[in-house]
């Protein structure tokens, strides 16, 4: 095994260990979710984001596709019913504001 192959194997091992540690700490990594919801988290995050975009477009008087809304709602219902969506919470507006309280740690009630 060449030096570069050993270095690549060591880097992959380290990355896997870092992903596990970050997941256990409740920290999201690209393509994952801190909720530990499994394989559906990426799809759920994308669907929730897209639903938010559609809602914003509608709220500001811009056209939004009813077909897209129906597709996103079906996706979210399927993910939630199969237990792959994770908890649905809204961040209080005071978090992150200057002088406001810091957000609670991941997993806090």
Structural class: mainly alpha
Radius of gyration: 19 Å
Strand and helix order:
HHH
Biggest sheet details: none
Average per-residue pLDDT, rounded, comes to 78
Please summarize what this structure is.
The protein has 109 residues and is mostly helical.
Description:
- It is extended and about 60 Å long.
- By secondary structure, the chain is mainly alpha-helical.
- It is built from three helices and no strands.
- Helix 2 packs antiparallel against helix 3.
- The chain has helices at residues 3-24, 41-59, 66-81.
- 52% of the residues lie in helices and 0% in strands.
- The longest helix is centred in the first third of the chain and has 22 residues, at 3-24.
């Amino acid at each position: 095994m060449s030096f570069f192959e050993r270095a690549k194997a060591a880097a992959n091992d380290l990355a896997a260990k870092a992903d596990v540690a970050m997941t256990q700490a409740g920290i999201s990594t690209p393509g994952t979710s801190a909720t530990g919801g499994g394989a559906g988290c990426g799809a759920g995050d994308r669907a929730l984001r897209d639903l938010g975009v559609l809602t914003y477009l509608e709220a500001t008087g811009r056209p939004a596709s009813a077909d897209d809304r129906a597709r996103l709602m079906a996706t979210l219902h399927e993910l939630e019913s199969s237990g792959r969506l994770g908890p649905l919470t809204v961040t209080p507006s005071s978090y992150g504001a200057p002088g406001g309280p810091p957000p609670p740690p991941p997993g806090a009630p």
